[in-house]
Specification:
By secondary structure, the chain is α/β, with parallel strands linked by helices. 37% of the residues lie in helices and 21% in strands. It folds into two domains: 217 residues, Alpha-Beta Complex (DHBP synthase); 151 residues, Rossmann fold (3-Layer(aba) Sandwich). A seven-stranded mixed sheet has the order 4-5-3-6-2-1-7. Helix 10 crosses helix 11. The longest helix has 27 residues.
């Protein structure tokens, strides 16, 4: 009986993790999800989206189907950057859940009345930028910031903390827009069967606060080990090649040079496998150029590591990537092509890479990338002071210029060309 129960529990945990991964994919693509808390708290579901990736249709949906009040859940550090004071009263009791409201805000420029979906979208985008400052917003306004506890879900298991936590786990910033869902019946908040029906009607992923904690714990206990290692002389210099395996027998390749444990800001690249670019030298993308540039940079430094990840086509696989290529041949850009074949724009997660980096025990990292999301993904194991980005100059061709322009303009890659 014990073995049966253990198997059942493992199955339940795996289902919950898969559900969180689906929610992460939705957030990456600008969609909203629903986060529910437990019966001992508010026992309700909130619509949640990442401020970094949220789109105008999603904001419009959230306004129409919620109470209409949009809150921005964010970190205490972001609240300080914006110069916002908490809303407190000397004459009133605190609310039961001690919700950390601050002064309401509006973007200081580029809006009209501030209440439209477009205006509130701009306010959320402006206020959630990592380089935001006090002058970027005015008070009061139509967006209501909420300050998450510094320990997030380890400290307080509320929607505010859960929303920030899931955004950080998804590497889509540290701020979320959240909206409460009122019931259509009886003047209460939506929960139970009504919430399930709403989610199914609009194809929304539902996760609980506890699901997020289970997923976070799975990352912390993610097990991998070095399976094999050998010398690898290359045209760029002499590297060591190491193969890591995880519990699923998935492989991750590490190409390293020099003593990476005893240097500050070790050059590291997380490189997603690209058969067409890396092996066949396709000029439809710049993957080969980025890989070779990283190897050259590490060889020049004399130390560094490349984590070669089995994430063909930004995680959708080779077959689907080539299918998306066929849509690009018809005039679609890389984002439109993925969506046209019902695939996410970016399906990658970096759990395996993070687990390997933990084992490599680096003090600080210089991440070789043009993609800020990769930088964000490593902030779960590195502080802001121990990680920085080294921008690769893009390898531009006539065939990939439009592709690179989409990555820069629509995916926020910091490309130089």
């Amino acid at each position: 009986m014990g073995d049966i129960m253990d198997a059942f529990r493992n199955t339940v945990v795996n289902v919950k993790i898969e559900n969180v991964l689906k929610a992460i994919s939705d957030l990456k693509n600008g969609r909203s999800i629903i986060i529910v808390d437990d019966n001992g708290r508010e026992n309700e579901g909130d619509l949640v989206a990442s401020c970094e990736t949220v789109t105008l249709p999603t904001i419009d949906f959230m306004i129409k189907h919620s109470s209409g009040i949009l809150c921005m859940a964010t970190t205490s550090n972001q609240i300080q950057k914006l110069g916002l004071d908490k809303l407190v009263s000397k004459n009133h009791k605190k609310d039961n859940f001690e919700t950390a409201f601050t002064m309401s805000i509006e973007a200081s420029s580029g809006i009209s009345t501030g209440v439209s979906a477009m205006d509130r979208l701009r306010t959320l985008k402006v206020a959630s930028k990592l380089d935001a400052k006090m002058d970027d917003v005015v008070c009061p306004g139509h967006v209501f910031p909420l300050q998450a506890s510094d320990g997030l879900l380890d400290e307080r298991k509320g929607h505010t903390e859960a929303s920030v936590e899931i955004c950080k786990l998804a590497a889509v910033g540290e701020s979320a827009v959240i909206a409460e869902l009122p019931s259509l019946y009886g003047g209460k908040m939506m929960s139970g069967e009504e919430l399930d029906f709403f989610a199914k009607t609009y194809n929304l992923t539902v996760i609980s606060v506890n699901d997020i904690l289970i997923y976070k714990k799975s990352l912390e206990s993610y097990r991998c080990y070095m399976y094999s290692q050998a010398k690898l002389p290359t045209e760029f210099g002499n590297f060591m090649i190491s193969i890591y395996l995880n519990d699923k027998k998935e492989e991750l390749t590490v190409l390293s040079m020099g003593d990476i444990q005893n240097h500050d800001f070790v050059p590291v690249r997380l490189h997603s496998k690209c058969l067409t670019g890396d092996s066949f030298h396709s000029i439809k993308c710049d993957c080969k150029y980025q890989l070779h540039s990283a190897m050259e940079y590490i060889a020049k430094k004399g130390y560094g590591a490349i984590l070669y990840l089995d994430q063909e086509g930004r995680g959708i696989g080779l077959a689907e990537k080539i299918k998306a290529y066929s849509m690009q041949d018809k005039g679609m850009d890389t984002i439109e092509a993925n969506l046209a074949i019902n695939q996410p724009v970016d399906a990658r997660t970096f759990d395996f890479a993070i687990a390997v980096l933990k084992q490599l025990n680096l003090k600080s990292v210089e991440l070789i990338t043009n993609n800020p999301k990769k930088l964000d993904s490593l902030k779960s194991i590195f502080t802001n002071d121990s990680i920085k980005m080294y921008n690769i100059v893009a390898g531009v061709t006539n065939e990939n210029k439009d592709y690179l322009d989409v990555k820069r303009s629509k995916m926020n890659h910091k490309l130089k060309f």
